[in-house]
């Protein structure tokens, strides 16, 4: 594990920049603003090297990146490290560009611009921001969750992100451990560009069924050999037990999950670690939650955490902001399942597929920069699988009409609201369609999630576990 501990005296310039950042954060909170990255931007302008200087105080740094799951993986890892008694610095709000990471450091720093000497950083990184964040805060462990189609207008094709990550590896410290998802062949290809230590994770349960026939794949061939990926079992997107005719194949993972069972709000599995195994009762739905837990566990192993502590951290998991988050509003349960690309939305829909259950749905489609301005991806989502299980449908967001058209072709019932863009109005209509003590499931894109989550808070939403206490 990389150990860094600064012995330099506090920099007056850094202290002044941190003080300014803290003042901005305090003012924003007083105004009820959620702009989590602005303090970091202020500090960057005052002291461009602030992040790298703050990072010198850290005992260890974990970077988590990937298309899907990075926010939840980071939240799980932060729980595990706190269960191990460590001080954790974490960009928990999901602000994952350079200035968002800087803002998280400012929050944890003293007025002199120093972090606790034993602090471990858990830093979620935007896919494109990884090289810059890693250069400023060199990782002890870097986790790569998956690589899927997302925001093509911003990132380009997924191969361009893979190349950017491969280039970033060359600047990592030699003692960094990289953690790779072996079920994603694009992630495995990163190992060809790394000479240091590597830990891998994946699903090793023979009873997990294959994805439905026709479910979209985000990668169909090996970009290095042009050979098609073939599967003995494919779980979702391009994740599964894969091989190519040229002889490449899924490696055996160092850390794996098997004996996986699903129930409402709970996923149980056996976590196989290099030296031991523990049974996990994870308070989260879906196979993708198991992948998140595996990624967090692999990082924890790299940071020297014991198996029992990993279990304790995972079993105390609470949903990250807008990711399987459950609340109570006006006597109704509300669940928010973020879906920002085809594979992510397909997995969100799959968690709803239980025999005999019907759902009240609010689907929100925005096309902001953080969502991706190209919304053609909604036609690649398997909405048809949920159409017959929909009790009521409400549609909103900047591109509500496009979303309503897609759902009409999928066989959904008519929306219970006029097609309009204002999320406040459609949230009201969606709640009115749900009987008291019923449950509303919200499926938003990223900026729509931020908007609807703020409005739910203004309506007095209480997180479900707070109500139960």
Please explain how this structure is put together.
This protein is α/β, with parallel strands linked by helices and about 475 residues long. It folds into two domains: about 230 residues, Mur-like, catalytic domain (UDP-N-acetylmuramoyl-L-alanine:D-glutamate ligase); about 150 residues, Mur ligase, C-terminal domain (Protein-Tyrosine Phosphatase, Chain A), CATH 3.90.190.20. Helix content is about 35%, strand content about 20%. It has 17 helices and 17 strands. The strands form three sheets. Strands 2-3-1-4-5-6-9-10-11 form a nine-stranded mixed β-sheet. Strand 2, helix 5 and strand 3 form a beta-alpha-beta unit. Helix 4 crosses helix 10 and helix 4 crosses helix 11. The protein is globular and about 65 Å long. It starts with 11 loop residues before the first helix and ends with a helix.
């Amino acid at each position: 594990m990389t150990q860094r501990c600064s012995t330099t005296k506090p920099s007056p310039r850094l202290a002044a920049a941190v003080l300014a950042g803290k003042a901005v954060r305090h003012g924003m909170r007083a105004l009820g603003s959620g702009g989590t990255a602005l303090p970091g931007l202020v500090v960057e302008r005052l002291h461009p090297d602030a992040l790298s200087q703050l990072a010198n105080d850290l005992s260890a740094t974990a970077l988590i990146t990937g298309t899907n799951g990075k926010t939840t993986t980071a939240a799980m890892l932060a729980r595990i490290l706190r269960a191990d008694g460590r001080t954790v610095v974490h960009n928990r709000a999901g602000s994952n560009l350079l200035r968002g990471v800087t803002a998280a450091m400012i929050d944890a720093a003293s007025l002199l611009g120093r972090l606790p000497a034993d602090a471990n950083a858990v830093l979620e990184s935007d896919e494109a921001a990884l090289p810059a964040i890693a250069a400023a805060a060199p990782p002890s462990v870097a986790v790569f969750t998956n690589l899927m189609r997302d925001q093509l207008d911003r990132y380009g094709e997924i191969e361009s992100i893979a190349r950017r990550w491969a280039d970033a590896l060359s600047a990592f410290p030699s003692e960094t451990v990289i953690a790779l998802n072996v079920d994603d062949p694009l992630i495995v290809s990163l190992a060809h560009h790394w000479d240091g230590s590597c830990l891998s994770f994946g699903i090793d349960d023979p009873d997990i069924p294959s994805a439905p026939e026709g479910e979209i794949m985000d990668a169909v061939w090996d970009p290095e050999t042009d050979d098609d990926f073939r599967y003995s079992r494919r779980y979702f997107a391009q994740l599964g037990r894969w091989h190519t005719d040229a002889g490449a194949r899924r490696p055996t993972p160092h850390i794996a999950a098997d004996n996986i069972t699903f129930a409402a709000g709970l996923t149980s599995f056996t976590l196989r670690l290099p030296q031991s195994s523990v049974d996990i009762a994870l308070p989260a739905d879906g196979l993708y939650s198991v992948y998140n837990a595996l990624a967090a566990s692999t990082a924890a192993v790299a940071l020297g955490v014991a198996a029992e502590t990993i279990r304790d951290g995972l079993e105390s998991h609470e949903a990250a902001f807008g990711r399987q988050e459950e609340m109570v509003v006006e006597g109704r349960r509300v669940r928010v399942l973020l879906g920002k690309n085809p594979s992510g939305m397909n997995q969100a829909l799959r968690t709803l597929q239980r025999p005999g259950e019907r759902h009240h749905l609010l689907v929100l489609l925005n096309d902001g920069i953080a969502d991706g301005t190209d919304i053609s991806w909604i036609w690649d989502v398997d909405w048809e699988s949920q159409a017959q299980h929909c009790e009521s449908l409400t549609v909103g967001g900047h591109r509500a009409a496009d979303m309503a058209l897609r759902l009409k072709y999928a066989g959904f019932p008519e929306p219970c609201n006029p097609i309009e863009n204002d999320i406040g109005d459609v949230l009201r209509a969606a709640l009115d369609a749900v009987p008291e003590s019923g449950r509303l499931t919200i499926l938003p894109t990223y900026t729509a999630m931020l908007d609807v989550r703020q409005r739910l808070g203004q309506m007095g939403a209480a997180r479900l576990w707070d109500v139960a206490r």
